[in-house]
Amino acid sequence: MQEKLDQLKAILAEVYDLSSAAALLGWDQQTYMPSAGAEGRGHQIATLEKIAHNKFTSDQVGQLIEDLVADLKQLDPDSDDACLIKVSDREYKKQTRVTSEWVENFARETTIAHQVWEKARSENNFAGFQPNLERIFELRREYSAFFVPYEHVYDPILDDFEPGLKTADVQEIFKTLRPQQVELIKAISEKPQVDDSFLRGEFDDRKQWDFGVSVITAFGYDWNRGRQDRAAHPFTESNGRDDVRITTRIYPDELTAGMFSSMHEAGHALYELGVDHALARSPLASGASLALHESQSRMYENLLGRSMPFWEFYYPRLQDTFPAQLGNVSLEDFYRGINKVEPSLIRVEADEATYNLHVMLRLELEIALMERSLEVKDLPEAWNAKMEQFLGVTPPNDADGVLQDVHWSSGLIGYFSTYALGNLISLQLWELIQQDIPNLPDQVRKGQFGELLEWLRRKVHRHGAKYEPQDLIMRITGSKIDPVPYMRYLNNKYSQIYEL
C-alpha cells in the first residue's frame, strides 16, 4: 500500500505545482501584466491547466486510487493519508467526466474575459463584455452537462466551491435568512440615521496603505510568506504553502474600503498559511471550501475589524494618522459610522445587515442564467430590477451595477452564495471562540490577536481540505451551517447602535 500511496503523492504534487504556476500567472495578470498580454496569458494558463488535468485524470492515477480505496480500512479514517485518498477519489471521479478540451477552452476564455471586463467596467460598457459573458455561461452549462443526471443544473458548479452542498440546501438557508434580515433593515430604517460623513474626504493613499499593513501584521500575516499589492477587485492568491499573496484597493476620498479590504483578504491568507505543512503539494493543501474561507475573511473584517474593542485600541492610532479628518470625531461616533446600515450599490462595501441581500440577488441571477430563463443580454435590466426589489436602490450605471464584480469574468459562477454562508459560519465559530477564550475582548483592546489565531489554526486552518465543509463545521461546532447565531449577532449589535 505504501508504495502505491507514494506514487500517488508524487503525481499529485506535480499536479499541484502546475496549478500553482497557473495561479501565479493569474495573480500577475491582475496586478502587473500589461493589458495587451491577455491573449498570450490565456494560452499559457490554458496549457498549464490542460497538462494538470490530463496528468490527474490519467489511467495510472485512476488505478492507484482504486487500489488504495480498496485498502482504506487499513488506515485511521481521520489520518492525512486516508483523507487524501478519499478526496483524490472524489476529485478523480469528477474530473474524469470533464474533457481536457473543455478545461483548456475555459481557462483561455476566462483569462481573456478578465481583461475585457476591466475595460468594460472602466468604460461603463456592458455590451463590450456581453459576448465574453455569454461564452462563459455557455461553458458553465457544458460543464454541468458532464454531470447529468443532477437535481439542478446549478448543483455541479456549486459543488466545485462548496463540496456536498446542493442548490436546494442554499435556497432553504436563504429562505430562512432573508425575511429576518429584511425585518431588521426595516426596523433600522425607522430610526434616525447614523452620520458617517467623516469617512469621506481627503485620505492620503500611502497613510491608508501603511495603516492597513500595521493592522494585518498584528493579525499575524507573515510577510516572509506573502505580500500585498493592488488590484481592481481585491483577492487572495495561494501559490503554494509558503507563498500566499493578497491585494487591496484604496480610494483617496474614502477611508474604509482599503482598510477593510486588507483585513478581509488577510483573513483568507491566514487560513491558507495555517494549513498543516504535512498536507503541502496535495489536494488537501487549501481551505475546506469557499464558505469556510469566507468565514475567516469576514471574521477578521467584521467581527474584529468593526468591533468596539478593536477600535478602542486602533482608533487613537487612526486619529494620529488622520488628525485633520478624525481629530474631532469621537470613538463612539466612529464606531457607529463604520457600522452604518444603509442599502447601497456595491457589495464589497455593504454593511453587515444588507450584505447578504447582495449575495442572494446574485445567486438568483446566476440560477436564472444557468436555467436559461434569463439571457445575458437582459442581465443589466434584471440586475437593476432586483437591486430595487432587494435593496430599494437602482444603480445609475452598469459599472456600479452588473459590472461591479470580477467573479463572472473569471468563470466563478456558483461562488457567490459562499459569501453569505461564510457569514453564518463565522458566527458559529465566533460564539465558540468566545466560550473558549472568554477574555478575548480584553486581548483585542490591547491589540493582541495571537490566541485567536492559535485557536483558528488548531480548530480550522490546519485541517486544510481533509474534510467536507459541513463535516468540518459539525466537528467544530456540533451543528451544520445555521443562520441563528448570525441573526442573533446582527440583532444584538444593531439594537445597540440604533437603539431598536
Task: Provide a descriptive summary of the structure in words.
With 500 residues, the protein is mostly helical. The chain has helices at 2-31, 38-56, 59-70, 80-95, 100-123, 126-145, 155-161, 167-189, 205-219, 256-273, 290-304, 308-321, 323-326, 331-338, 352-371, 379-391, 417-436, 440-445, 450-459, 469-477, 484-498; strands at residues 228-230, 236-238, 244-248. Strand 2 (236-238) and strand 3 form a beta hairpin. The longest helix is centred in the first third of the chain and has 30 residues, at 2-31. It is globular. The mean pLDDT is 96.
**Total number of β-strand segments?**
3
Strand content: under 5%
- Helix fraction, binned, reads 55-70%
- Using only C-alpha atoms, the radius of gyration works out to 23 Å
Overall spatial form: globular
Structural class: mainly alpha
Q: Give average pLDDT, whole number.
A: 96
For the largest beta-sheet, the strand count, sense and barrel status come to:
3 strands, mixed
Notable features of this structure?
single chain; 500 residues; mainly alpha
List the helices and strands and how they pair.
Blueprint: H1 2-31, H2 38-56, H3 59-70, H4 80-95, H5 100-123, H6 126-145, H7 155-161, H8 167-189, H9 205-219, E1 228-230, E2 236-238, E3 244-248, H10 256-273, H11 290-304, H12 308-321, H13 323-326, H14 331-338, H15 352-371, H16 379-391, H17 417-436, H18 440-445, H19 450-459, H20 469-477, H21 484-498
Parallel strand pairs: 1-3
Antiparallel strand pairs: 2-3
Helix pairs in contact: 1-2, 1-3, 2-5, 3-4, 5-6, 8-15, 8-21, 9-10, 10-11, 11-17, 12-14, 15-16, 15-17, 17-21
